[in-house]
Amino acid sequence: MKTYETLAIDVDPDGVGILTFNRPDKRNAMSPQLHRDMAEALEEIRYDPTVRVLVLTGAGPAFCAGMDLKQFFTELGDKPAEYDKVFRIATEWRGRTLRYFPKPTIAMINGFCFGGAFAIVEGCDLAIAAEDATFGLSEINFGTFPGGAVSKALANLLRPRDALFYGMTGRKFDGKVAADIGFINYAVPAASLRDEVMVVAREIAAKNSHALAATKDGYHHSLDMGWDAAISYANVMQDSLTLRQKGAWQEKGIGDFLKGEFRPGLEANPGLRDG
Ligand code: COA
């Protein structure tokens, strides 16, 4: 895989890609270069058959300290075209690209997670944090509001009372609270974070990749559709899945169950893993 100035990427033999924001000295704040690197890296990983599940994390004590307040807001302040270009890349990769990424994504939140980083967490399918990770909507503390993609991320994921409480107070909260309010799936002691995430990532990597992509698409598109359109879309998607899998869910999935070879309520059929 290509070398990136602000990222480190490793792929393990089970198909789990680990993408690490790699500006620990700046608490992995998202500089214009980090946004450009993310857009390019996600494109590369999208088409890399060795990556079946993608984990996003941060080097050092931070997951990501949000937008780079110096390089993004200050240094691009008087360069409107360049600001617009970086803003569009920044919004796209955390929003549409991650949301509709054809492979499952997991945010592994190891430390500080502020402001613009909430949109990364929201863009990922799953989020698991260290219990002592620190989250905060710090924008109010420097006199602004959760701009760009962040207000929409809050509206999508948080209950109204929590979104406005943390947005208006700027109070920080830890991984346990993040789990209690539903911003992440759950929190574990920092020492076991990586092992825990890898167990989940490997479990998902062993499933059928087309079924995983359909699970994501069915969920995300249904959010924006009325009931009739959602049912119709799901039916079309089922036909498309059958085609892409060459009928595997019917033959190996339901077929093996009917032959008494496995019980899908209790286990996955390993024969359905592809790639
Ligand atoms: N943008 C730009 N630089 C940042 C940054 C950000 N969001 N967050 C941290 N940095 C830089 C600091 O300026 C400092 O740089 P320096 O060494 O050149 O002075 C370096 O990262 C380390 O930061 P420091 O504050 O010394 O580390 P810390 O561990 O004591 O505190 C934070 C970490 C994240 C709590 C603190 O840096 C902070 O509050 N950052 C701003 C977070 C924020 O409001 N993000 C929302 C942006 S939308």
Describe this protein with a few key phrases.
275 residues, alpha/beta, 2-enoyl-CoA Hydratase, Chain A, domain 1, 6-stranded mixed β-sheet, 10 strands, 47% helix, binds coenzyme A
List the helices and strands and how they pair.
Elements: E1 7-11, E2 16-21, H1 32-46, E3 53-58, E4 62-64, H2 69-74, H3 80-99, E5 105-109, E6 112-114, H4 117-123, E7 126-130, E8 134-136, H5 150-157, H6 160-169, E9 172-174, H7 175-180, E10 186-188, H8 193-205, H9 209-223, H10 227-245, H11 248-258
Helix pairs in contact: 1-3, 3-4, 4-5, 9-10
Coenzyme A binds near residues 65 and 68.
Please state the CA-atom Rg, rounded to the nearest Å.
Answer: 20 Å
Query: What does the average pLDDT come to?
Result: 96
The strand order across the widest sheet is 1-2-3-5-7-10
Tell me the major beta sheet.
Answer: 6 strands, mixed
Strand content: 15-25%
Q: Ranges with pLDDT <50 over ≥5 residues?
A: none
Order of helices and strands: EEHEEHHEEHEEHHEHEHHHH
Helix-strand category: alpha/beta
CATH fold assignment of the largest domain: 2-enoyl-CoA Hydratase, Chain A, domain 1
How many beta-strand segments? Answer: 10
Q: Classify the oligomer.
A: single chain
In CATH, the architecture of the largest domain is Alpha-Beta Complex
Bound molecules: coenzyme A
Number of discrete domains: 2
CATH H-level name of the largest domain... which superfamily?
A: 2-enoyl-CoA Hydratase, Chain A, domain 1
What global shape is seen? Answer: globular
Terminal Cα span: 19 Å
Determine the number of helices (DSSP H or I, runs of at least 4 residues): 11
